[in-house]
Design a protein that fits this description.
The protein is an alpha+beta fold and about 170 residues long. It has helices spanning about 10-30, 50-60, 95-110, and strands at about 1-5, 30, 40-45, 70, 75-80, 85, 120-125, 145, 150-155, 160-165. It binds adenosine-2'-monophosphate (2AM). The site of adenosine-2'-monophosphate (2AM) has 6 residues, from strand 3.
Length: about 170
């Protein structure tokens, strides 16, 4: 199964991100990520066998994660897949260090695919027709986080769907 580690936004922030996705959609077109799917990917694990997924769920359920606060303040785009996102202008040190420590643990469990660069972002649009985000008002968001989720990604008839398999403990 296809797995990734992510931060899931608290409900009020999810709604706010959904509003930003609406604005971005009006400006750039493409496919808007539905509110329930909005997230910040910390590590994309790729295809993982079921037995290893169970071991990873157990690991996540016992993995303490330091609390933090992320402040997305910029729009951005990834040209090739036509992604429009919100993220931060400068890399957030706490998130970069969380991502690195999660990958450290993942590699010890035999997972490969650590990216050479981590750009924390929340994808709002896919296959956007315009990737010009300069006209959009900069976001002003606060994302308090305490937990990492292990999420399974699958595609139903219409689109990608996500199912949370495990969460790190609330300490
Ligand atoms: P994205 O938000 O930039 O599209 C679930 O698919 C999550 O994993 C998405 O958030 C996606 O990032 C990320 N993802 C999907 N395929 C990936 C890949 N091949 N490499 C890195 N990240 C990927």
């Amino acid at each position: 199964m296809r797995l990734f580690l992510a931060l899931m936004p608290p409900p009020a922030l999810r709604r706010r991100l959904g509003e930003l996705a609406e604005w971005a959609h009006a400006h750039c077109g493409g496919r808007r990520v539905p509110d329930e799917s909005l997230h910040l990917t910390l590590a994309f694990l790729g295809e993982i066998p079921e037995a290893q997924a169970e071991a990873l769920s157990t690991w996540v359920a016992g993995r303490d994660v330091p609390e933090g606060e992320w402040r997305p303040d910029a729009w951005g785009a990834f040209r090739r897949p036509g992604i429009v996102w919100v993220g931060s202008q400068t890399p957030d040190r706490a998130l970069v260090s969380l991502q690195a420590s999660l990958w450290h643990d993942l590699e010890r469990q035999g997972i490969t695919g650590r990216p050479s660069r981590f750009i924390p972002h929340v994808t709002l649009l896919r296959r956007a027709r315009r990737l010009e985000t300069a006209g959009l008002t900069p976001p002003d968001l606060v994302w308090p986080y305490r937990q990492v989720a292990l999420v399974r990604s699958f595609t139903d008839q219409y689109r990608a769907r996500y199912q949370t398999l495990a969460r790190s403990p609330l300490t």
